[in-house]
Amino acid sequence: MAERILDDxxxxxxxxxxxRFDAIREAGALLVRAGAVREDYVESMFEREAGVSTYMGNxxxxxxxxxxxxxxxxxxxxxxxRYADPIDWGGNxxxxxxxxxxxxxxxxxxxSRIAVVFSDxxxxxxxxxxxxxxxxxxxxxxxxxV
Length: 146
Fold this sequence. Notes:
single chain, alpha/beta, Mannitol-specific EII, Chain A, 5-stranded mixed beta sheet, 5 helices
């Protein structure tokens, strides 16, 4: 991959969303701001959520667009937003929303690494306890290799 999938500017330590839909908008806006996706990709993230929850367990949701939105992706990227208070994600508590956009399935390896990290409660606790966005980014670089 020529470009980084996760940049430090796409890591937010204190997300402002209080609902699942605001969290999707927040994660999507970071992808748009990074130049990774066009605005219409964020709408497809809502479509995906309406079809199937992107809640993954262990305080994690991974909002992403539908397969039909592939043409709205400019480059592969992640956004990472942490919330101080859990957001109700269809009855499940979410502290982390990771927005994903992937070109040619480049994101699948990253997704598998995210799954490994979030299956380890100790690693999740480190992400909860990290002080700043910079601290989070360093942890993510270490565990995700991004």
